[in-house]
Amino acid sequence: MTRSREIETNILATENKATLTDAVLKKPEQRVLNLSELGVPEVPELGVSRFRHKIAPVWEHRHEGCIEIGICLRGDLTQLNNRAIYRIMPGDIFVNRPEETHCLTTHPHGAILNWLQLRAPRANRPYLSLKAREAHEIWSRLYSLPCHLSAKNDAVKNAFAHLFKYYDQPSGHFRTACLNNACVALLIGVIESSAHKTSAAHSTRIDQIVRAMRENPERKVSIDALAHEAGMSPSLFNRQFKALAGLPASHFQISCRLEKAKILLVSTDMPITRLAFDLGFCASHHFSSHFKRTYGVTPHEWRNQNRKPN
Predict the structure, then answer these.
(1) pLDDT tens for residues 81-92?
(2) What's the rounded Cα separation, in Å, for the pair 198 and 236?
(3) Last residue of a domain, one of 165, 192, 219
């Protein structure tokens, strides 16, 4: 059995192939490593994905018995988690619990992300060289995290880089110790990224704004007006809103408009141009580009694929 599986996709085997550099051609589209074969059974998969061309969206799925942790290094990703949409920007972290169905709905050209799967601690078994109580505390904290976080520093990104570095070193006890320590550093970095708190009063006000945006996504509002409504400065409002909703207010409103568009496309015969303007988009092509980036198909294709025959 090989220590890892590396998946390399043929890249643009077209007439311009000669213009690609050797460095690009040597890098795999996706590298997936099994750390359980190296003395770290808690991590069955460690991966890096580089999207050099358009890839079909992955179906919604779950990782039984594992928490999935990832960080976006480049690009603008959209994740669906239990039917909620999250825009994942560079530096953002995503956490998917074992029971949560999820998928990335977009794979834009040039995007790069690191990810790993982490098994749950088992009774009377070693866990990343931690004591049982320490392992249980870390797992409990990870399990309570929201599915979208903004990294406060480079700790998580650096920990992923160290994992790949140590994997490629000669085998031995020292490498196993380094891999375990890097895993623990990564998990602590993820947990600490959620350390910022939102006051109860601010949370209630923002919850009200979130509900209003979901109910009437076409309403045109400015960040200043929303901040005034919440009783905060614009900068504080932006931070608190993203902490609670997972997206900046402007991106969240777009995601709400797109969700409503999905319903209207299937339930009405409204022309797409009219639908776009009614939902607050400045132009139909602006709406179509957002829709395709999020769901992987055009509004017209969505209507045709999901409308029930008469």
Answers:
(1) 887 878 787 788
(2) 10
(3) 192
